[in-house]
Structure formats: structure tokens, C-alpha cells
Amino acid sequence: MKLAVIGGALQGVEVAYLARKVGFEVILVDRKPMVPALGLCDDFLQMDILDTASLDRRLGKVDLVLPALESQPALARLCAWATSRGVPIFHDPDAYAVSSSKIASERFFRRYGFPVPNSWPDCRFPVIAKPSQGSGSAGIRIFLSEREMRATIGSDPFSEGWIVQEFLAGPTYSVEVLRSLGETVAFQVTDLEMDGGYDCKRVLAPSALPPDRIDELKTLSVDIADALDLDGLMDVEAIYHNGTFKVLEIDARFPSQTPIAVYWSCGVNMVHALAGCTLTRSNPATRSPLEGCKGTILEHIQAGPGKLFVTGEHAVAQSGPLHVQTDFFGADEAVTDYMPQKTRWVATLISTGADLVEAWQRRNEVISRIRRHLGSVQYIDPTPPESPREPVE
User: Fold this and answer.
1) Which of 166, 188, 222 is the last residue of a domain?
2) Rounded to the nearest 10 degrees, what angle do helices 72-85 and 52-59 cross at?
3) How many C-beta atoms surround the C-beta of residue 84 within 10 A?
């Protein structure tokens, strides 16, 4: 099957990696010449997808189009082209319009009564402020007082395109949901660990949550997908705070990081599952197994002169073309731009074991080997503060 992946950044890396695992032919499209997913495709087309003539000429014979970008104009043009040409495409524009705007998402959550952090002005400081547009940790700010917040983003954050919520400390979790023809399946729950800037640096599977909490989060995620009338795949990120899940973010698109971790842990390939639903218009038959899952740790590292960082995925997004390397310093696999002569490089490491304890042992051995290879380097694995300091008025 020929799969056109539109966009070569983090989402494109995730889709191309999993598509190659299932044997799809991957045609990568991006208007930039040197993108991270370039080394994971079978064919690369540098083109502007706003150019309909180029789409007709170069993508007319693909079996499925999977967008891996977040530009609304580009997505609208791509969907219009695919619909008019009868080319199957995975994209739910209505669900994406809600999830791509934190303001629209906030209204959606409130309308259906889904649990979310309290919003300012109905919460105490400290608060976390997020720009409405954009995904991940981009643009996130933490304010300790109203004076500080007003000085930075104005007196009416909502009208300026900001969502301001109470700062909550606690473990963070992610789950992907696939919905087709009214039937919804929640995949494996994963645990997320953040770097100092609240960007995800590490994914662990299976989750350390007890079974009843996993069921609770899956049920909540399925309810969100059903209320959204989702047609396709969605990611739900939630924090567990004071005995309750609070939804932090939803993304009605193919996510990054967690699908690869789920694939290695329980064998479910979300690209394969999504392609089956999209091409056959069938119910999502694929479900994550409850038993027999391998312990899996997926994390991002960045090596430079004198230092080895565990870092958020932003470092990978800013890299050049990546490639897959097996048995990378003892890791099962790595998606990396490493070359022996390079002094600066990044890698997404995948380490597995019979359970998470064994996976951690293997992971630590991998890091030790990399440090020995690099010589005398400082090892840095940053974490967010447990909570910001108290505001001083």
C-alpha cells in the first residue's frame, strides 16, 4: 500500500516509522528539503500542498493520505483535493477544529462537563497559561501572581488567545482513542515524564496506574471521543491530581511519541489500525491486549560537547533527517541523526524488558554506554518543579 505522509516533523516521524513497520510504502511530502522524517520514507516529494496541480501530478495514485501537520489552510486544501479526487484521507476537520484550539477545547469540556483544571479567575495562583493555538509545551508560561500575569499577557488573557488554569502537580498520562462508524476503542495508557519546560521527555508503558484507574481514564477518553463525534484517531492527555483525572489536552490527529511506545509494549500499530478503518470504513477491531505487554521506555536524548541531556521532543523536532538504528548502544532501536563523526546529535531511544523494572535496567545500561562513548560528560535529566514557589504580593 502507498501511504502519503504530509509533513516531515515529529508527527511525520511517528507515522513513517510505524508505516514502515507494517510494510507500507511511505511517500513523504514536505515543502522543506531537510526534515526529520526524511530518512524514514521510501520516496520524498518536496512540494507545496497548496499547489493543486502538483497534488494531481504527484499524489494521484496513492492509496491513503495521512496528514502530519497542523496548518489549517494546508489541511483544508488537502482535504478538499482528496475529497474531489476520491483519495482516502485520514482527517476529521470538525474534531480537529475543536482540539487544535485550546479555547474551543475549553468550551467543549465545559459544555459536556468533562473534568478539567479550574480556570482563572475562578482559581488561585500559581496558574499555567497556554496559547490557544499550538501543541505540546510551546509557549507555556507559569505565573505566580495576577500582577505578573497581567504584566506579561494582559488583563484579559482569554480575549488575547490564552487559556489560564490552576497549576496542578501530579503524574501525567496519555491514551489514544480510535473511533469509526460510531464504535470507539481506547488503546494502551502510557505514563508521561516531562523536562524542566514541561515538554515530554519520556514515555513509559504499560502504565503504573492500577487497573481500575486505567479503566477510568479509558472510559473518560471514550466519552470525550463520542461527545466530539470523532471519526479517526485522537490523543487524550490527563493529570491525576488529588484522586481525580483532569483533562489537560486533546489532539484529534496522529500524535507523536506514544504510538511508538504502545507498538513496542503491546504490538498494536496505530497506523495499521487507522488505515484499516479509513480504507474499509469498518469498525476499529484492534484493541490493546491487557496482558503480556513488554515494559517499554521511550525517551529523547541530546548529545553535545561535554553534556548529555535527556530532553523534550522539541530537540528531535529541530534536528535534521533521522534514521532508524537497531541495537543502538544496547537499546532495542533508536530514531537518531547520530553519526560517529558528529559531536552534536539527538536520539529517541527505545528500551524494553519483560517488565518496566527490566526495561529500566536496560535503559540505564544504554545511558552508561553512551556516556562512556562520549567520554567525560555531564549527564542532565531535568524535571519540572513539584510546584512553583508561593506568590509574593
Assistant:
1) 166
2) 50
3) 10
> What is the Cα–Cα distance from 388 to 125, expressed in whole angstroms?
10
Grid coordinates in use for 330? 544496547
CA–CA distance, 298 with 82 (Å, rounded to integer): 34
Tell me the average confidence (pLDDT) per consecutive run of 10 residues in the chain, 393 residues long.
Answer: 95 97 96 95 93 88 92 91 92 94 92 94 88 69 87 79 87 95 94 91 97 97 97 95 93 95 96 85 68 93 95 91 97 96 95 98 97 92 69 38
Total domain count, the chain: 4
154 three-state secondary structure: coil
**Residue owning grid cell 497581567:** 150
Q: What is the C-alpha to C-alpha distance for residues 132 and 281, in angstroms, rounded to an integer?
A: 33
176 with 252, same domain?
yes
Distance CA 180, CA 51 (A): 30
Provide the pLDDT for residue 393: 36
- The residue among 171, 162, 176 whose CA lies nearest residue 200 is 171
Give strand pairing partners of 323.
336
Answer whether residue 108 is part of any domain: no
Q: What CA–CA distance (Å, rounded) separates 195 from 75?
A: 31
**Domain interval for residue 241:** 169-280
The pLDDT of residue 21: 97
This model's pTM is above 0.85? yes
Give the whole-angstrom CA distance, residue 38 versus residue 135: 22
Residues 100/92, Cβ–Cβ less than 8 Å:
no
Q: Can you give the pLDDT at residue 388?
A: 59
SS3 state of residue 233: strand
Q: Identify which of 72, 14, 77 has the alpha carbon closest to the alpha carbon of residue 48.
A: 77
Give the residue ranges of DSSP H helices in 154-293.
211-228, 258-266, 270-280
Residues 83 and 176 in one domain: no
Residues 6+ away with beta carbon under 8 Å from 356: 204, 206, 208, 295, 296, 297
Grid cell digits, residue 116? 478539567
Same domain assignment for residues 6 and 84:
yes
Assess if residue 113 is contained within a domain.
no
